[in-house]
């Protein structure tokens, strides 16, 4: 397999693109390499998911678990996506990693099956608008598997008001996640939870833990959630760990 440099050294584990000053990034493989059997579909997907921007992966339908993307993507599509990435230089911007850059269209909300969880309560429909949340990564995920709209995800979380008051959590007492403890599971991106969760979780990779600060418009708005001890117009803070994607 062709290496990352002109001297054909072995491919590094992080699959990063070499880049000289004032020069565009170049890929590790030639078109001839990709058209043959020297490079597998999974290798191409891994590289694209590690290096391409979230917007590029979304446009090319390459978000999701490695297994699912490999099933739904042809080799020709992956090769074209690789060439397009190099041509347009749509690489991931690490400086912007902590903030969602592109909003998705709002969807009508439906009550969730888990009515005991405050985050799994319906919120009003929202039209397309700039993101109303920020994300700070507390623990990096695998940077390979990202949930797509409709995927089932599982999360541990703690929800707080701005003054630090905890209004909801599924973390066991003492923080130990034993056999009896179960994470919250739901279909992401389809209105089963508040919009801030739907949008933020689709930017997190499997295993990632993040702090989400969600404006009231993408949480419970002007009415709040009295039964959940959430006042009107409340900005909510969550610590969320994404533990599985199906």
Automatic annotation (TrEMBL):
For this protein, what is the EC number?
A: 5.2.1.8
Keywords assigned: Isomerase, Phosphoprotein, Rotamase
Q: Which terms in the Gene Ontology molecular function aspect does this entry carry?
A: peptidyl-prolyl cis-trans isomerase activity
Q: Which domain of life is it from?
A: Eukaryota
Residues in PPIase FKBP-type domain copies: 150-246
User: Region labeled Disordered — which residues?
Assistant: 1-33, 93-125
Q: Where is the composition biased (Polar residues)?
A: 1-10
Give the InterPro entries listed for this entry. FKBP3, FKBP3_BTHB, PPIase_dom_sf, PPIase_FKBP_dom
Does Isomerase appear among the keywords?
yes
Q: Does the keyword Isomerase apply?
A: yes
Catalysed reaction(s)? Answer: [protein]-peptidylproline (omega=180) = [protein]-peptidylproline (omega=0)
* UniProt cross-references to CDD domains, sorted A to Z: BTHB_FKBP25
Q: What is this protein called?
A: peptidylprolyl isomerase
- The organism encoding this protein is Eptatretus burgeri (Inshore hagfish)
Organism ancestry = Eukaryota, Metazoa, Chordata, Craniata, Vertebrata
């Amino acid at each position: 397999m062709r290496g990352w440099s002109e001297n054909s050294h072995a491919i590094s584990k992080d699959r990063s693109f070499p880049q000289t000053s004032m020069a565009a990034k170049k890929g590790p493989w030639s078109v001839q390499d990709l058209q043959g059997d020297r490079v597998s579909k999974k290798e191409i997907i891994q590289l694209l998911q590690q290096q391409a921007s979230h917007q590029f992966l979304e446009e090319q339908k390459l978000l999701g678990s490695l297994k699912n993307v490999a099933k739904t993507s042809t080799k020709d599509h992956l090769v074209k996506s690789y060439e397009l990435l190099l041509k347009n230089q749509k690489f991931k911007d690490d400086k912007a990693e902590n903030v969602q850059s592109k909003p998705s269209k709002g969807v009508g909300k439906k009550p969730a099956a888990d009515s005991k969880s405050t985050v799994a309560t319906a919120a009003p429909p929202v039209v397309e608008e700039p993101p109303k949340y920020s994300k700070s990564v507390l623990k990096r995920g695998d940077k390979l598997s990202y949930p797509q709209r409709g995927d089932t995800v599982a999360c541990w979380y703690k929800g707080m008001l701005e003054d630090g008051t905890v209004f909801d959590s599924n973390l066991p007492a003492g923080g130990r996640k034993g056999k009896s403890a179960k994470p919250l599971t739901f279909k992401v991106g389809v209105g089963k939870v508040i919009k801030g969760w739907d949008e933020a979780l689709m930017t997190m990779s499997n295993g990632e833990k993040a702090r989400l600060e969600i404006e009231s418009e993408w949480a419970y708005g002007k009415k709040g959630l009295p039964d959940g001890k959430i006042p009107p117009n409340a900005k909510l803070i969550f610590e969320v760990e994404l533990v599985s994607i199906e």
